[in-house]
Amino acid sequence: MSSINLWGYTEKNFQKEKYPLNETLFALGNGYIGTRGSFEEKSDFGGHDGTFINGFYDYYDLSYGEKYNGYPDRSHAMLNVTNGKKIDIYINNERFSLEKGTIKDYVREIDFKKGILTRRVTWISEKGDEILYESERLVSFYEKHLMISKIRITPLNFDGDIRVVSYLEGDVKNITKENDPRIGVEFHGDELKVLECKIDNNRGEIISKTKSSNLGLICLMANNIKCDDQYDSFYEQNDKSVSHVFNIKAEKNKVIDLEKYIVYKSYKNELNDNLYSEVIGIVEEAFTKKYDFYKQKQKEFIDDFWFNTDILIDGDDATQQGIRFNMFHLLQSVGRDSLTNISAKGLTGEGYEGHYFWDTEIYILPFFLYTNPDIAKQLVNYRYNLLDSARKRAKEMQYKKGALYPWRTINGEECSAYFPAGTAQYHINGDIAYTVCKYVEATNDEEFMVEKGAEILIETARLWLEIGHFNSKGEFHICCVTGPDEYTAIVNNNVYTNLMAANNLHNAYKAAMLLQKKYPAQYKKLIDKINIEESEIDNFEVAANEMYVPYDEHRKLYPQDDSFFDKPKWDFIDSEDKHPLLMHYHPLNIYRAQVCKQADLILAEFLLGGYFDREQKIRDYDYYEKITTHDSSLSTCIFSIMANELGLYDKAYDYFGDSVRTDIDNLHNNTSAGIHTANMAGAWMSIIYGFAGMRVEDGALRFSPHLPNQWNSYRFRVSFQRRIIEVCVTKNNTEFKILHGEPIMIYNEEKSIKVV
Amino acid sequence: MSSINLWGYTEKNFQKEKYPLNETLFALGNGYIGTRGSFEEKSDFGGHDGTFINGFYDYYDLSYGEKYNGYPDRSHAMLNVTNGKKIDIYINNERFSLEKGTIKDYVREIDFKKGILTRRVTWISEKGDEILYESERLVSFYEKHLMISKIRITPLNFDGDIRVVSYLEGDVKNITKENDPRIGVEFHGDELKVLECKIDNNRGEIISKTKSSNLGLICLMANNIKCDDQYDSFYEQNDKSVSHVFNIKAEKNKVIDLEKYIVYKSYKNELNDNLYSEVIGIVEEAFTKKYDFYKQKQKEFIDDFWFNTDILIDGDDATQQGIRFNMFHLLQSVGRDSLTNISAKGLTGEGYEGHYFWDTEIYILPFFLYTNPDIAKQLVNYRYNLLDSARKRAKEMQYKKGALYPWRTINGEECSAYFPAGTAQYHINGDIAYTVCKYVEATNDEEFMVEKGAEILIETARLWLEIGHFNSKGEFHICCVTGPDEYTAIVNNNVYTNLMAANNLHNAYKAAMLLQKKYPAQYKKLIDKINIEESEIDNFEVAANEMYVPYDEHRKLYPQDDSFFDKPKWDFIDSEDKHPLLMHYHPLNIYRAQVCKQADLILAEFLLGGYFDREQKIRDYDYYEKITTHDSSLSTCIFSIMANELGLYDKAYDYFGDSVRTDIDNLHNNTSAGIHTANMAGAWMSIIYGFAGMRVEDGALRFSPHLPNQWNSYRFRVSFQRRIIEVCVTKNNTEFKILHGEPIMIYNEEKSIKVV
Question: Would the CB atoms of B69 and A591 count as touching at under 8 Å?
Fold first, then answer.
């Protein structure tokens, strides 16, 4: 029998050297609040006790040795906020801490079905007092502003003094940047200032304000103790911290329970009375309803999630655990309010500054779209809400029309300080447009297309006409861009970019035609709003049709861009121990060679598969695989998917194996700084698009399932056009079943079948 | 009769709005000390009173939003140093200043034959006291550490108190950066700290030290008063300043003379006794020999300079003045100690941080080489002295062999913070190699080639083998470089770069062969020192011979690089009022179009003219002229030269006209921040290479003179192979004459003639 926890992740013996890593793996979140899995009690094991609110950031100035027009003046980064988790315990004046004393039993577990983190430890103080310490923590999906900690202390061999101190600490800082953008940002530690710190109505309260982004945060704590012992309690406070102290005359074997309710609420500009009352209401309600109520609600929410989402893998427990771990963390990380999104490290760390990238559209959104389309809708709505910022950005870049989405952002402003791998990655416009269409196709949400989608498509399409041009042969060329592969920059006619641009232009034209015919009033409103002429819309279709795509007739290969094959191949032997290359080589040396950080042409062949024939894909795969380093975590999942499509099943499984347990096994050795959300969703894609061969083309669902040798069977569910379809793949056949909704025609191995 | 001062520049009426500009135009220098033409007396007309020591800089940190391997951590910039010029005068307690009172007569003049700056003003104080103020200033070419100010005050209508205060001020700052790299740097004002400020032996003395570059500066002042009036004198001082005060009981019409000797001496690390004594010796000698001695020596030095250098233009006084102004400022700006060079703004301003660029080799060095070859030798020696730094830089960039010269530097460290228009401009290696060969060709200084030149050539050649590659056809390609034109960046096979690289490789091979055959001992020493194999040297010649140069057979044009013609043409109408473009557009938008900041291919066609036939040059000129903005001051002179070569005489004169009076007429409206040294030398090139059609090819001097319609005749001298040759071009013929040295065979209009 396997010892792997299929519905959770367990630490069975305390490993202090893994404390920073486990802070990430045991992180909890609900898409609004995220908190690292640090212990309640003060512990110095080199970690970083962070709590984050999605979309809550401060600005910092960007500096450049030489600065040019259109460079962003400032960036913003997600802030570490008021610490509400901390609870210290003193046993006969000796502070409970795993740094000292003796640990007798220890188990920590995050439960994917319950959505809670528990810890249980029997600990003997240096003086010999033995206690059983048990804690539970949840960040509520039911009430997104609420986090609850529950601790229970049982004195096992003594009567004596137990002091419990429950803190709300406003003196928090981000990690200082260490010249590695994957870890943190150059903040000074004074970005979040405590405005007010007080005790009111048996609650602690800290109101903070950011230094320059004009965002505020109110954080409340209420503690509820339950014990049969005698105790007294009081508060202590200073400028930046409140603590609620309980002095207990403890008796052997009598339990002491403390429930701690922590409420976070961020706001813009000034805190008003209504908002304040609302926050008070949340904490009062929680205090009344108690922990068990929220624990039950948490389970109900998560049950629903798993019903839609779970993938059952028979015969490979490590993978089973890994994929659930990933899906659970994706749920914990994703903003569901259309004002926030899902960042590169979710809400588990400060790396990449909490920014949202194209990762959302191309890697993460498919997971939500085909399991939880309501969440997907909020992510697409987020991009619509950014459209004005994107129009502004296009103007800053001196374009006369259209919108240019930021390469990295939280609030819509471009935060990339290195344009060759930032602003030059115009493909983000195409990625967002692609996803708008995929969303509408998978949900039949034509209302979204009419109200918002068409506007995104048209405004992004306009930008291609700004940066591309028709050459003397009438071909549409796009110069000086960077594709997904950041090891090749500022090139002409990157195949991925050009094809995604063509797709964007064509779909913008189609959307305009749809509105014109079917929704003339909305069409009129839209063209007035964005001031567009019909000739411009016609031009979208011309540019799409005439889009130039370089091809090497001699090699029978697609070059990644016009000049890709003119460059020499990279010396992989010489650089074997120097990955990721960009941390070891000057960009020019990398750009100068045929070497890819990640899937680029191969990604185009996945996303726009219909454009390429199978033989072509095989040749290209063979060529590009040899020169791809996978230095980006966005790479192996795409190679896995395409390996499956091309029947390279061993490779497919190997690449999948690299990605499904990246974080849980800390394969990149940097999970302590946060999870890799795109890779997590990539693992889901590797199963659904890869092994199961799912594609959605022209509104139809297609499958071409393969069962890896390592598995006995697998089963998953897909939400599609208001249905839930269950797919079960075994050695001999594949079964499709409708769990919810009307029957549907799908394709299995190119054969049309009706699923009921 | 023309009112233009043919041997100087004169300000006849004080124009306070031109004060900052005139600080540049009236700047004095001797290649070591440079001082702006600010008044002696405190004046607030918005200028910047700067004094600079060539090669005297401090470091500052470079910051990047995203930083990668091989990016420089720090830059350095030339410092404004101790102010020794300042002298205040009080007339019956009213401070002499042109800010107030009445100016009756005024004339200021810089004399190109004497090398001194004079000012004469009759001034009436607000109370009605009238004085004649006369000053002379020189920065000595004879004693490079010495600057002298002489002032004479004559009370014209009163007896009374005159107080003269002569300062040495250590509290000096650079201009704060204003987001324009052409003006200044982001210093904090504390880069130069006063260590010691004292009065000793009737001299003021300030010793300063840089904050981080470990350079020191000692500055002494000694004042010598001569007057028949009664006076007393004393010193005042504070932490950062010394002043020598003279209280004079002045009598009407009796002159008061003050001579002020200021000595500057910079040093590395610590000041030692020897050095200190040396500096004391200089000031004591000056105090003994007196101003008139140095004035005479100044004239002798400058007479020699003009004998070698002057260009006589009959019929165009504005040009006559302009070209002399330029040549005089070039002499004032150039370092002649092999440890310093000539910066973009000479020693007249802080723009471009006092850095030395490729401007030296390709624009400025020809002027010195063919007029003052001893100075040229020191400039080439400077590059040899930088070779170790260049080898270090190559290693920093992860190259295994060779040397990479910094794009911009003072001390040899790369200071460019924007690699697409910095490090990517590898052509600087080729530019330096080109100049090494031109130097040896023009001087027959084979000893230099053996001792230093060959090492430069071979180490720079090695770098081309590091960044270039042989493709499958055996062609040598160089990818991801930026040519001279900074409006097109990170391209493959820039024609200029590839041809200069081929030239470098070929000459490195030739130099190695020369040493091997003629100087075997030195050859052995060299190959041991730099650890090179013969096969590597052979490979230089193979790469040179197989160098790929793109050519468009259809257009019959050379593209600037592989993909230049794939881009659309720039919209010149839309951007008419937005020059320089890089201050108005994001780099990507500029890179994306066919638009040139400056001569690039056209520069190659000038420097390596033998590679291209005349018809080709005509076609290319016609094409590139239309798309070149000349946003760089390095451009019009090259277009002028090539226009002359191609018989486009009107264009040639127009372009020349744009460049010969750029600074004296403030055509770029930024001369207040300093002169444009490369453009100044470009004007010389426009005459010598342009109108006179001089070329040096295969060791032979060739001319093809043309007399512009605007001129009656012109005459110039050229130093070549230990001769001075005078060339006089009139309407009907050209005369050549040897002024110094043996007869020589030259070519005039392709005909070989013997000059005696």
Answer: no
Which residues make beta-bridge pairs with A356?
Answer: A409
Strand B700-703 versus strand B744-748 pairing type: parallel
Look up residue B141 and give its amino acid. F
* Span A326-363, pLDDT tens digits: 999 999 999 999 999 999 999 999 999 999 999 999 99
Residues of A in contact with B420 (CB under 8 A): 420, 490
Cα A701 from Cα A711, distance rounded (Å): 24
A523 contacts A512 by C-beta, under 8 angstroms:
yes
Catalytic hit among A259, A414, A455, A486: A486
Q: Which residues of B touch A421 (CB under 8 A)?
A: 66
Per the CB < 8 A criterion, the answer to whether B98 and B16 are in contact is yes
CA-based nearest residue to B175, from B165, B183, B167:
B183
The answer to whether the Cβ–Cβ distance between A398 and B589 falls below 8 Å is yes
Query: Which residues, given as ranges, of chain B have pLDDT below 50?
Result: 1
Rg (CA), chain A: 27
Distance from CA of A474 to the nearest CA of B (A): 12
Find residue A264's DSSP bridge partners: A219
Q: How many helices (H) and strands (E) does chain A have?
A: 19, 28
Q: Are A453 and A444 in contact (CB under 8 A)?
A: no
Under an 8 A CB cutoff, do A563 and B562 touch? Answer: yes
Q: Do the chains contact at A68 and B591, CB–CB below 8 Å?
A: no
Mutate to test the interface with A, among B59, B61, B66, B408 (most CBs of A within 10 A): B66
**Looking at chain A from residue 174 to 193, which residues have their Cβ under 8 Å from any Cβ of chain B?**
179, 181
Distance CA A358, CA A356 (A): 7
**Domains by residue range for chain A, with CATH:** 10-62+70-275 (2.70.98.40), 300-385+647-756 (2.60.420.10), 416-629 (1.50.10.10)
Instruction: Count CA atoms closer than 13 A to B319's CA, side-chain side.
Output: 23
- Give me the interface pTM, i.e. the ipTM: 0.93
Other CB atoms within 10 A of residue B479 CB: 22
Whether A533 sits among the annotated catalytic residues: the reply is no
Q: Assess B397–A contact: CB distance below 8 Å, yes or no.
A: yes
Strands A130-139 and A146-155: antiparallel
Catalytic residue among B486, B536, B605, B645: B486
- Ligand-binding annotation for B597, yes or no, is yes
Rounded percentage of chain B residues whose pLDDT exceeds 70: 99
Q: Is A118 in a helix, a strand, or coil?
A: strand
Distance (Å, rounded) from C-alpha A358 to C-alpha A426? 10
Q: Is the pLDDT confidence value at A30 over 70?
A: yes
Shortest CB distance from B585 goes to which of A398, A469, A489?
A: A398
Q: Does B472 touch chain A (CB under 8 A)?
A: no
**What is the chain A residue with the closest CA to B72?**
A65
Residues 302-361 of B with CB under 8 A from A: none
When CB atoms are compared, the residue of B477, B566, B582 closest to A477 is: B566
Contact A296, A318 (CB under 8 A): no
- For residue A274, give both structure tokens: 């209504």
Rounded CA separation A88/A165 (Å): 5
Element (H, E) at B636: helix B636-645
| CA–CA distances in Å: residue B395 to residues B75, B404, B625 | 18, 9, 39
SS3 B737: strand
Q: What is the pLDDT of residue B63?
A: 87
List beta partners, residue B20. Answer: none
Tokens 């305009």: give the residue: A512
The DSSP call for residue A363 is: I
Strand partners, B203: B200
pLDDT, mean over chain A: 96
Helix (H) or strand (E) segment spanning residue B218: strand B215-227
CB of A284 within 8 Å of any CB in chain B? no
